[in-house]
Amino acid sequence: MELQKLVESNRIIPGVKDQQGLKKALRSDSDIIFVLFGDIISIEDITDQIRAAGKHAFVNVDLLEGGSGRDTVIRFLHRYTNADGVLSSKAAVLKAAKKLGFYTIHRFFIIDSFSFQNLEKQTAISEPDILEILPGWPKLITWTREKTDIPIISGGMVCTHEDARASLDAGAVSISTTNDCMWPRRDVRRVVKKTQNGS
Predict the structure, then answer these.
(1) What is the pLDDT of residues 21-69, one digit of tens each?
(2) Which residues fall within 8 angstroms of residue 11, CB to CB, at 6 or more apart?
(3) Do the Cβ atoms of 97 and 104 come closer than 8 Å?
(4) Among 24, 49, 150, 169, which is 20 to 30 Å from 138 by CA?
(5) Are 87 and 61 in contact (CB under 8 A)?
(6) Rounded to an integer, what distance in angstroms lies between the CA atom of residue 173 and that of residue 171?
């Protein structure tokens, strides 16, 4: 399935920081899990668990411990794991991942006007499938949509269902969150449905 369609059909994406979070995410209704922990010893097992549950694993290589060089880590993930995609804030890493056939999500931290102005330069290098904007405040989503046609995931500081609705209304195609209270359940699906219907 094309990544944008997959993301659009999973409006809330769990981000897992530890094994406990992974277990909860595996039981969620989401078809995608963002892996925000692990090392080169454990990541194979983590992605195997996600694949066995019929879900797609996206590994944040910036948080993966034990890699001496990021290009080496990308090759390791490609050869030894069931990862479907890679998240990173580093354009060169994403470029290398894309060459090996991974889906790529560029995590972009907007901390000031300088970083925001740097967005187009960085995405021209990484050519990501998806942008993840952090923090995921609606105003930042709106501004980013004015600068690029790349689909946007809202991530970071999206703490409530109201925050999620505001980000989706601003143009995000999905939300990523480590808050397991927001992971896909019927109450979240109602929030998303209302947003999609414009109510």
Answers:
(1) 999 999 999 999 999 999 999 999 999 999 999 999 999 999 999 865 6
(2) 164, 168, 173, 174, 175, 184, 188, 192
(3) yes
(4) 24
(5) yes
(6) 6
Maximum distance among all Cα pairs of the chain, rounded to whole angstroms: 49
pLDDT greater than 70 at residue 12:
yes
d(CA 73, CA 66): 9
Contact 183, 175 (CB under 8 A): no
Q: What are phi and psi of 141, to 5 degrees?
A: -65, -45
Count of residues in the chain: 199
3-state secondary structure of 83: coil
Residue 61 has which token pair?
């290589």
Residue 85 dihedral angles phi and psi, to the nearest 5°: -150, 170
pLDDT tens profile 180-193: 999 987 444 444 55
Q: Which helix (H) or strand (E) holds 131?
A: strand 130-134
Kindly list the distances between the CA atom of residue 181 and the CA atoms of 13, 85, 111, 156, in Å, as whole numbers in the listed order: 12, 25, 27, 15
Asked whether 10 and 183 are in contact (CB, 8 A), the reply is no
Q: What are the tokens at 166?
A: 């505001």
Spatial separation of the C-alpha atoms in residues 86 and 29, rounded to whole Å: 21
**pLDDT digits 0-9 by tens, 77-124:** 999 999 999 999 999 999 999 999 999 999 999 999 999 999 999 999
Residue 68 burial by CB count (10 A; 0-12/13-18/19+): exposed, middle or buried?
exposed
